[in-house]
Amino acid sequence: MSDEGPSTLENMRTQMKRAQEYANVTENVFKRLKHPERTLEVSLPVLRDNGEEEIFKGYRCQFSGARGPYKGGVRYHPSVSMDEVIALAGLMSSKTALVQLPYGGAKGGVVCNPKDLSRDEMKRVTRRYTEGIRRMIGPKVDIPAPDMNTGPREMAWMMDTYSVYEGHTIPESVTGKPIDLGGTPGRVEATGRGVANTTEQILEYYGRSAEDATVAIQGFGNVGSWAGRLLAERGANVVATSDVTGGIYNPKGIDTREVAELIESGGQIADYDGDVDPITNDELLRLDVDVLIPAAVSHVITSDVAEEVRADIIVEAANGPTTPEADDVLAERDIPTVPDILANSGGVIVSYLEWVQNTQEYRWTLEEVNADLERRMTEAFENMMEAYDEYETPDLRTAAYTIALDSQATAHEHRGLFP
Ligand SMILES: NC(=O)C1=CN([C@@H]2O[C@H](COP(=O)(O)OP(=O)(O)OC[C@H]3O[C@@H](n4cnc5c(N)ncnc54)[C@H](OP(=O)(O)O)[C@@H]3O)[C@@H](O)[C@H]2O)C=CC1
Ligand SMILES: O=C(O)CCC(=O)C(=O)O
């Protein structure tokens, strides 16, 4: 992560502000959309395995609920802060509006390093966190889901803890659950699948194809590894990837399945002993590839990095990987960047499908889920490209935010919030 410039929240506001001149949004509504509706900080006493008690800090932010129940993931990471959680909740509000889900936006997080916590400690942190935010969430109010370092296991614990307090099982209180607890087939890989779909679409828009396209992916966790595997299945050549320990590179391509197996069995990229050269995360961002996919943390593409990016196209799988200053450089250099609020929306789209199935006590097939995901993302992509052409916005992000702002402003207007 870079130290460049303002906070994640300031960056999100700047990116939103750039769309204001194209969107049909009054100053009052815009002011409303700059600030969260509600935040909560919780202090979580958790018993460590060594018998000592440690206090962890947790957050939940409900940014905007004008369009429906708040929705957004829960992140476990040492760098989690209230500022970051608010910014990520703001991104969620724009994301759900852009892809036309009947939700607002929220986000949560716990300041912790999951690599230092045993399974039992993770469970105790998750239960305490859920107890801490329990009065704020609920199936019709605010529905948590996975983000960095959380997945089906943590969502199962959250759903269980919430349900115990309510006195009966409420699967629709959380999405991203294991399938046997009401999770939907396809949610685990949904964000990566959406990134792969979007990569194909943007390549096609520029008259190219995913077949043989070279791809570098920063971050090989849930999102990065599924995007990599699915792009490789479509003929792309994933030449580099990384985790926090550094990266690997082979211009002829790396075996994404083999690397994913290593990570899923608890290994790190640095342990991979295939036919690859080590590279740093900084070098990965500057590789000469067709597509660069940041799929880890925020602010990695700063203006300095943007000056040296050699990819033809960037697809943002991570939330907030590009600073506004870098956006300017990339626009100047004619490097299209598909923004996070579209590119990684596959996760929340399939979360929505899970929630709908839970409320109906019904289960769709994987094929139905994937088809619905693809239809929704294709429509959102086409809407963004239309806005880009019609308003002649400086970049794709501004086009995407213009649509999101319009939708949120219309919701405020219909509700009579600002006469
Ligand atoms: N999960 C989801 O459904 C969604 C996730 N996202 C976004 O996608 C991004 C990745 O999330 P997800 O895949 O779930 O998270 P994971 O925790 O599964 O994976 C994160 C990956 O990023 C790596 N990483 C962490 N810090 C750094 C760093 N400083 N430099 C380089 N790599 C780093 C991790 O390495 P290591 O394992 O070594 O720490 C890991 O490979 C996040 O920005 C998240 O907000 C967006 C929409 C939905
Ligand atoms: O699946 C969800 O509800 C939210 C996923 C998420 O946190 C995100 O899109 O950033």
From TrEMBL:
<comment type="subunit">
    <text>Homohexamer.</text>
</comment>
<feature type="active site" description="Proton donor">
    <location>
        <position position="107"/>
    </location>
</feature>
<feature type="binding site">
    <location>
        <position position="191"/>
    </location>
    <ligand>
        <name>NAD(+)</name>
    </ligand>
</feature>
<dbReference type="InterPro" id="IPR033524">
    <property type="entry name" value="Glu/Leu/Phe/Val_DH_AS"/>
</dbReference>
<feature type="site" description="Important for catalysis">
    <location>
        <position position="147"/>
    </location>
</feature>
<dbReference type="InterPro" id="IPR006095">
    <property type="entry name" value="Glu/Leu/Phe/Val/Trp_DH"/>
</dbReference>
<feature type="binding site">
    <location>
        <position position="351"/>
    </location>
    <ligand>
        <name>substrate</name>
    </ligand>
</feature>
<feature type="binding site">
    <location>
        <position position="71"/>
    </location>
    <ligand>
        <name>substrate</name>
    </ligand>
</feature>
<dbReference type="InterPro" id="IPR033922">
    <property type="entry name" value="NAD_bind_Glu_DH"/>
</dbReference>
<feature type="binding site">
    <location>
        <position position="95"/>
    </location>
    <ligand>
        <name>substrate</name>
    </ligand>
</feature>
<dbReference type="GO" id="GO:0000166">
    <property type="term" value="F:nucleotide binding"/>
</dbReference>
<dbReference type="InterPro" id="IPR014362">
    <property type="entry name" value="Glu_DH"/>
</dbReference>
<dbReference type="Pfam" id="PF02812">
    <property type="entry name" value="ELFV_dehydrog_N"/>
</dbReference>
<dbReference type="GO" id="GO:0006538">
    <property type="term" value="P:L-glutamate catabolic process"/>
</dbReference>
<dbReference type="GO" id="GO:0004352">
    <property type="term" value="F:glutamate dehydrogenase (NAD+) activity"/>
</dbReference>
<keyword id="KW-0520">NAD</keyword>
<keyword id="KW-0560">Oxidoreductase</keyword>
<feature type="binding site">
    <location>
        <position position="222"/>
    </location>
    <ligand>
        <name>NAD(+)</name>
    </ligand>
</feature>
<protein>
    <recommendedName>
        <fullName>Glutamate dehydrogenase</fullName>
    </recommendedName>
</protein>
<feature type="domain" description="Glutamate/phenylalanine/leucine/valine/L-tryptophan dehydrogenase C-terminal">
    <location>
        <begin position="184"/>
        <end position="416"/>
    </location>
</feature>
<dbReference type="Pfam" id="PF00208">
    <property type="entry name" value="ELFV_dehydrog"/>
</dbReference>
<dbReference type="InterPro" id="IPR036291">
    <property type="entry name" value="NAD(P)-bd_dom_sf"/>
</dbReference>
<keyword id="KW-0547">Nucleotide-binding</keyword>
<dbReference type="InterPro" id="IPR046346">
    <property type="entry name" value="Aminoacid_DH-like_N_sf"/>
</dbReference>
<dbReference type="InterPro" id="IPR006097">
    <property type="entry name" value="Glu/Leu/Phe/Val/Trp_DH_dimer"/>
</dbReference>
<dbReference type="InterPro" id="IPR006096">
    <property type="entry name" value="Glu/Leu/Phe/Val/Trp_DH_C"/>
</dbReference>
<comment type="similarity">
    <text>Belongs to the Glu/Leu/Phe/Val dehydrogenases family.</text>
</comment>
